[in-house]
Write a structure and sequence with these properties.
It is a single chain. With about 160 residues, the chain is α/β, with parallel strands linked by helices. It has one domain: Peptidoglycan recognition protein-like (Lysozyme-like), CATH 3.40.80.10. It is built from four helices and seven strands. The chain has a five-stranded mixed beta sheet. Strands 2-6 form a two-stranded parallel sheet. β3 and β4 form a beta hairpin. The longest helix has 17 residues. The chain is globular, with a radius of gyration of 16 Å. The structure holds zinc ion. Zinc ion (ZN) binds next to loops.
C-alpha cells in the first residue's frame, strides 16, 4: 500500500469524443495503453454519458493527463467534449453533471485544499474540457450551503 500523495489540483478533462459517438471506459483505457504507451489509463476517474463513475488509476498513483502537473493532481475525464461537427462543446449530460458534482464533493472531503481546474486553465493551447471547470469550485460551495441540514462546525470556538 503506497502513501497518499499531496493533492493540490483536481484537473477536469474531456475525452474529445463527438456527440453521437461513444468511448466507454474500457475503450478509453485501451487507447491510453495501446496508443500512448501508458501502463494503464492516465486518468483517475472516467465519467461516461450515463453518469457512471469508473475508477481508473488508484489515487496514490501519479496519473498521466496533464503535462507538468501530474505529480500533485488527480485527473477526471468525462466522455464527450465535442459536438456532432467535432467542435469543442460542453456535451455533459445531466447525469454526467450530477455524477461529476457527486465525485468532486467526495474528493473535496478527502482533499479539502485541492483546487478544481480545467485542463485548459493549465494549458491554454487545449480546449479541453470545453467548459469552465473552475466554476465547479463555487458550484460545490453553493451545494454545500443548500445541504446544510446538519451542523458542520461542531468544534466551535471555546467559550
Ligand atoms: Zn485534457
Amino acid at each position: 500500500m503506497s502513501r497518499m500523495r499531496t493533492i493540490t489540483l483536481i484537473v477536469i478533462h474531456c475525452s474529445a469524443t463527438p456527440e453521437g459517438r461513444s468511448l466507454d471506459f474500457e475503450a478509453c483505457r485501451m487507447e491510453h495503453v495501446r496508443h500512448r504507451g501508458f501502463r494503464d489509463i492516465g486518468y483517475h476517474f472516467y465519467i461516461t454519458r450515463d453518469g457512471e463513475i469508473h475508477h481508473g488509476r488508484a489515487l496514490e498513483r501519479i496519473g498521466a493527463h496533464c503535462k507538468g502537473h501530474n505529480r500533485h493532481s488527480l485527473g477526471i475525464c468525462y466522455e464527450g467534449g465535442l459536438d456532432v461537427k467535432g467542435q469543442p462543446a460542453d456535451t455533459r449530460t445531466p447525469q454526467q453533471r450530477q455524477g461529476m458534482l457527486c465525485l468532486l464533493r467526495q474528493l473535496k472531503r478527502q482533499f479539502p485544499h485541492a483546487l478544481i481546474v480545467g485542463h485548459h486553465d493549465l494549458d491554454p493551447m487545449k480546449a479541453c474540457p470545453c467548459f469552465e471547470a473552475a466554476k465547479l469550485n463555487s458550484e460545490l460551495l453553493t451545494e454545500d450551503n443548500a445541504e446544510e441540514s446538519h451542523p458542520q462546525n461542531l468544534e466551535v470556538e471555546p467559550p
